[in-house]
Amino acid sequence: MDYIAAYHTDVGISKKTNQDSLAIKVVETKKGKIAFAIVCDGMGGLSKGELASKEVIMAFSDWFDNVLIDDINKLGLDEERLVGQWNDIIQTQNQRLGEYGEKNNLMLGTTVSAILLYNDEYFIVHVGDSRVYCMTDKVVQLTKDQTFIAREIEAGRMTVEQSKTDPRRSVLLQCVGASQVVEPEFVKGHATKDEVYMLCSDGFRHQISEQEMLEKIGPAVVKTEQDIEFGCRYLTETVKNRKESDNITVAVVKTA
What we know:
With 256 residues, the chain is an alpha+beta fold. It is 37% helix and 27% strand.
């Protein structure tokens, strides 16, 4: 399997700092190419959100560069080992950020949504309300929002329409750094050629439709990294024109 990837991130129209962070890595190993993408959204209402998101990105990047590639070359990819490593990173970062917050009298935290693509499989780790999607001729959300309103909708206590204007729509059930206990969601699935995997912070998705995503960054329209970057920029500007107030981040990996 081959991969092409690109991203775009923007501070948006109202905030002074971009508290989103991301990384994309596509590497040739001795056993084939591997792709990794991660998006973290530092909590907008919490202090030092940009620090929290960047710290988690750096921890995952260090793991990818210094642990995963060596594992792949020597042992191949073992799902149980991968899940254990990811959980260790998240628990360690949750403790470190929590201790930093206590020491400095701060509350800081971040979402985490990451995907690893290798051969014909994908693996996802997820905390919070950033999202991972798969696009073919349709758009499928692969992660579940860990939010108050998502829980209320699932329980039948709130409709999707009600959730759009509910003042609690940004309330997270958990995040890395500001939660006493973090229980990541792990997802595994089958990957085939000519699919688009998209990760985004919540600021990217509020003001655009799934059809608009397909039309600009779906597999039928993106053939090169330049195509992906153009689509990401176009959709970001669309979101800003529709008065989205949050930071905006999108990362895309296409299988080929």
